[in-house]
Design goal:
By secondary structure, the protein is α+β, with helices and mostly antiparallel strands. It has three helices and seven strands. It has one domain: START domain (Alpha-D-Glucose-1,6-Bisphosphate, Chain A, domain 4, 2-Layer Sandwich). The protein has a seven-stranded antiparallel sheet.
Length: 143
């Protein structure tokens, strides 16, 4: 299963970082491939659903996400389903004296014919992971 993980630390309070990132519609700002993200149900906690449209590997991909873990100021986790692929995004938060460390992990589980593209997906998400980390840091610092 291809996955990518990046960790950044910003001089911002965990409360501000948590509030920003757990509103998953903000992916429109900090996640480079995201075209749009809409909350389709819920209050942001466990069971909340989002519809995301991203441009990946030259094509538009629609993903329906559900929040499966919501531990304030510690863990925000979503699972998603797209055509031929299951996804899991886990964001962990660690508060320091004047900083917040964010670790973002994305796991991709291709199935069916999409499994044939696993080597391409793995290479693409490594590059994408670095772009996301840079963009995320920039947007968190602007809070």
């Amino acid at each position: 299963m291809p996955s990518v993980e990046r960790t950044i630390t910003v001089e911002k309070p965990v409360e501000a970082v948590w509030t920003y990132l757990t509103d998953f519609t903000t992916t429109e700002q900090w996640d480079p491939p995201t075209v749009s993200t809409e909350r389709t149900s819920g209050d942001g906690g466990v069971g909340t659903t989002y519809h995301n449209v991203s441009r990946m590997l030259g094509r538009e991909v629609e993903v329906d996400y559900e929040v499966v873990r919501f531990e304030p100021y510690e863990v925000f986790e979503l699972t998603g389903a797209a055509n031929g692929m299951s996804l899991r995004d886990t964001i962990t938060f660690q508060s320091g004296q004047d900083t917040t460390t964010v670790t973002y992990r994305s796991e991709f589980s291709p199935h069916g014919v999409t499994k044939l593209a696993t080597p391409v997906i793995a290479g693409g998400i490594e590059v994408l992971g670095s772009k996301v980390a840079h963009s995320l840091e920039k947007h968190l610092l602007a809070l």
